[in-house]
């Protein structure tokens, strides 16, 4: 299920040309691969190991997720981040991503196989960095707020069309309620599960 590191580096360089910094998250025994991507990307990608909480916080600010069938891809889908998913032997109809804004790249040569194989799958190797960059550009254009460059993410309030306030809100206008030890289930449903 691993796409070659040099191709991720090529994608990072391409995204860097439109103003996007790439972050490479890696898991156990993957640091060498991540450092190879970082080195070959000529400074356009940064490799670091993040906790799940840190990864969620970073993804909330992301314009795009590029990667394979991994836990972080499913997190990106849950956070409504546009996804370019690179699939090999696993079946995207079974594994997702199940997000509105996702492009799945999978070769017709790929045979569905859910066993763990160390060598890269031939069908996955037929997916080029150019194809991934083209899918990335398409998603960035499709999801960019009106009147902005596709590589630039606007702050949340501006992206949703909210206007800035000319004066700060007075604390007396909206008193805060004291936290409760117990809240009804419907009140908790609107709160985030993880606070970052």
Number of strands: 5
Provide a count of the helices.
9
**What order do the SSEs take from the amino end to the carboxyl end, as H and E?**
HEHEHEHEHEHHHH
What is the quaternary state of this protein? Answer: single chain
* Helix vs. strand class: alpha/beta
State the end-to-end distance: 30 Å
Q: Largest sheet, if any?
A: 3 strands, parallel
Helical coverage, percent range: 25-40%
Structural shape: globular
Residue-averaged pLDDT, rounded? 77
Task: State the strand order across the main sheet.
Answer: 3-4-5
Task: Supply Rg.
Answer: 20 Å
Low-confidence stretches: 152-196
Percentage of residues in DSSP E strands: 5-15%
Explain how this protein is built.
The chain is α/β, with parallel strands linked by helices. It has a 3-stranded parallel beta sheet, with helices on both faces. It starts with a helix and ends in an 8-residue tail after the last helix. The protein is globular, with a radius of gyration of 20 Å. Helix 2 links the parallel strand 1 and strand 2.
Notable characteristics:
disordered C terminus; 9 helices; 3-stranded parallel beta sheet; alpha/beta
């Amino acid at each position: 299920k691993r796409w070659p590191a040099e191709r991720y580096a090529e994608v990072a360089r391409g995204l860097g040309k439109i103003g996007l910094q790439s972050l490479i998250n890696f898991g156990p025994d993957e640091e060498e691969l991540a450092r190879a991507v970082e080195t070959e990307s000529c400074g356009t990608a940064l490799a670091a190991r993040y906790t799940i909480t840190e990864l969620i916080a970073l993804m909330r600010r992301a314009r795009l997720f590029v990667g394979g069938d991994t836990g972080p891809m499913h997190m990106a889908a849950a956070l409504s981040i546009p996804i370019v998913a690179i699939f090999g032997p696993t079946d995207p109809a079974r594994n997702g991503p199940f997000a509105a804004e996702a492009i799945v790249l999978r070769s017709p040569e790929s045979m569905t196989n859910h066993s763990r194989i160390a060598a890269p799958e031939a069908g996955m190797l037929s997916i080029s960095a150019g194809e991934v960059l083209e899918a990335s550009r398409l998603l960035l254009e499709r999801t960019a707020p009106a009147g902005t460059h596709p590589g630039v993410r606007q702050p949340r309030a501006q992206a949703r069309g909210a206007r800035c306030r000319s004066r700060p809100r007075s604390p007396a206008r909206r008193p805060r309620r004291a936290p409760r030890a117990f809240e009804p289930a419907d009140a908790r449903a609107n709160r985030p599960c993880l606070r970052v």
